[in-house]
Model the fold of this input.
Amino acid sequence: MTLHARNVEEGAVLSGHKKGGADPTAELLAYHARKRLITVRTSLFFVPLVVIATWRNPVAGLQLALGGVIGVLNMLATMRANERLLEGRSNRAIFALNAQIRIFAVGMLPVAVAIRLGEPWTVALYIAGFFTPLALYALAYHRTVKQEA
Done:
């Protein structure tokens, strides 16, 4: 057995659930609870930031708020599309087409707003807002995995 094959084999043994016989229903309930929690946390995180940004520059506040809202909606739509694909209620071609349409839409929106309102630097705030829900979800999931260990 080569060194690489042995590492893969060892990784496969260690990569499973540490709970042993984890209940899939409980895991699914935790997943849905995490989605709701991230939606609320993102809102609570962004409200004061949007107020401050709007006070300083209304276009910046708009882009930050737009990024947060679209980020949450995109996260939920992507998760739902993944669920449908895993359940067999969607085919891969439709899944890929929907993903491409979402990527195009969320990429065009901030640029169009920034160009229309004459503040191109605010696209960075949109991007920060867009990826914040994903970062918060990753942190919440990391905490869940760490607690189970």
In short: The helical segments are 3-14, 24-56, 58-87, 92-117, 123-148.
